[in-house]
Amino acid sequence: MLELIKRIFGALLEEGRKIYTRLAKVPILGLILNGNFFIRRFHSLIAIIPIGIFLCFHLLLNGSVLISGNESYLKVITFMKSMPFIIVLELVVIALPILFHAIYGIWIVYLSKNNVLKYTYYRNWNFYLQRITALIIVVFLFFHVLFLRILVHDPQEIIISFAGFLSNPVYFTLYVVGVWAAIYHFANGLFTFCITWGICVGERAQKIFSWAVVAIFIILAVLSVAVLTKIATMPLP
Question: Which 3-state string (H, E, C) describes the chain?
């Protein structure tokens, strides 16, 4: 049985390499698949602008629930949904950048060689966790958008649906995992972004900034748990 699984996996891997070779010959796809410098830089840039900015903004907006519960949360959601051209903004500024970043990111995960057991360095683990959290975020975002954006439209119904999910301990835990994965991915991505783009140069500067992104992760992680806990326990009309 084990030998059969190995043969199937080997055949799939070989077929994947053949498909990759064919696609890499297509001019535009070749630039993407072969890790073109500008494509990778663009992938790095949109991780922070606009995706990272949106993540922080989204967490802060959801933090409004901590002010006066359902009342303040409802006002924020109603305001956001009533903004002019909100659908266009969501597609152009949020959905398309996230979609590109996710697809190309998954391709990077496929190509990357994980050797954390061989080289147990701090940054090697960060590299590995960045790839793992990327996959978690893809699954998390699919269900988050599906159940709280596509299937539900009324602001109060969104809150009731969200609170219903979070009142279940299993779903609450899964939500924390998904949100923390997104926060970690952003914080670690911010660190690598500043190094890649020459913003944070030198060992001392990188060490200081590494502690800064740890602080960013902790602050956003604590805020997210506080928000999720409030939504799960607040009284609803």
Answer: CHHHHHHHHHHHHHHHHHHHHHHHCCHHHHHHHCCCHHHHHHHHHHHHHHHHHHHHHHHHHHCCHHHHCHHHHHHHHHHHHCCCCHHHHHHHHHHHHHHHHHHHHHHHHHHCCCCCCCCCCHHHHHHHHHHHHHHHHHHHHHHHHHHHHHCCCCHHHHHHHHHHHHCCHHHHHHHHHHHHHHHHHHHHHHHHHHHHCCCCCCHHHHHHHHHHHHHHHHHHHHHHHHHHHHHHHCCCC
